[in-house]
């Protein structure tokens, strides 16, 4: 083995010894010429020298830029997070009350939850989205696992499908929430899009949607926004939902609902679950990812659920056993606090009632902001038809502003939004509407 010529490993080792001796003798870092991969303390180059800077997230990066702006006028309409009329984050009273109850209960401990999460939370979450009288629940055909908010639920569902479903292609609407393609690609699915939004009518491209899903391969997965489509604010009508259902079932496509805004679209939890319940009522299978970030204001608690509606109780229980194998190596088991808050509220009739009132108030304030912004643009005579502001549903308005106009608004008016022209109506207040209307007016008249 000893050929007289030192191997690369030997050379690196002896260089390292020389450097260490040199460093201890002279403490002179200039004599250290470690290889870029040596990584020992004092090495000039990092072993990560080759790592290139990644761009900020298109949505969460807006908040990063906003935080750096020192203007007193600055306004963040980027991320979909509810703000009060005073522009402050809101913790619901009912959430505070539930937290106080949890705090006062000295029997509560901090043990690990099971891999699938808090049992009460899972049962109540399935009831919330599918309806208290859902036959699928009564027949034990639904398996629900607590996940890390909506994103985590989508990811666990995606990974389960990549492992156990015969079709790896998922169709997502164009456009959609920017994280969808990333979540599903990394879960191991292949992402394709179906037409959804028509920029000319600023409404649903229903024909395009039917054509694209109609030509999807049999069995393909279809991602649907349960309500309050993000970013467009455009939802199918109940009649259109029924046509979509028929098409999906006739082609044996697999519906995967993303329900991040239940209660935020109409202010009514049942009305906003209509699309999901329509699909479950026909006895077919489907996936639902739920988030409590927006509707309970539990953003940072990361509380959500994945429900898989199956054909039989036996299949559902086997599916659940496999979901555990997806979750255990990913994050072991979910956090206890947020799920306990949700379970406390959902299981108590009075607290549930109180929640629905607070939720309705949030939804109503957003609807009111739509009207105020629309009126403000009309009174300024801003060119264009802005009726989509009051027609669109949910947390966002898809303004139609282009990326240059958005950049102009951010630079000149310190108003932050995603570059696709989406604004979070929940970030707006009566005080800030005129500022935004001035900015939009200037952008559409000065930047084309
Ligand atoms: N689905 C949709 C459609 C969605 O808009 C969001 C969040 C999520 C899922 C995930 O939410 P979670 O916090 O994981 O429960 N959307 C807002 C925040 C974000 O981008 O993370 C947004 O669009 O601003």
TrEMBL record:
SUPFAM superfamilies listed in its UniProt record: PLP-dependent transferases
Entry-linked Pfam families: Aminotran_1_2
GO cellular component: cytoplasm
Gene3D superfamilies assigned: Aspartate Aminotransferase, domain 1, Type I PLP-dependent aspartate aminotransferase-like (Major domain)
Domain Aminotransferase class I/classII large: 74-440
Keyword annotations from UniProtKB, A to Z: Aminotransferase, Pyridoxal phosphate, Transferase
EC number: 2.6.1.1
Claim: Transferase is one of the keywords in the record: yes
Catalyzed reactions: L-aspartate + 2-oxoglutarate = oxaloacetate + L-glutamate
Single annotated GO MF: L-aspartate:2-oxoglutarate aminotransferase activity
Names of required cofactors: pyridoxal 5'-phosphate
Alphabetized PROSITE patterns for the sequence: AA_TRANSFER_CLASS_1 (PS00105)
Domain of life: Eukaryota
Quaternary structure (record): Homodimer.
Recorded family membership: Belongs to the class-I pyridoxal-phosphate-dependent aminotransferase family.
Note: In eukaryotes there are cytoplasmic, mitochondrial and chloroplastic isozymes.
PANTHER family: ASPARTATE AMINOTRANSFERASE (PTHR11879), ASPARTATE AMINOTRANSFERASE 3, CHLOROPLASTIC (PTHR11879:SF57)
Name this polypeptide is given: Aspartate aminotransferase
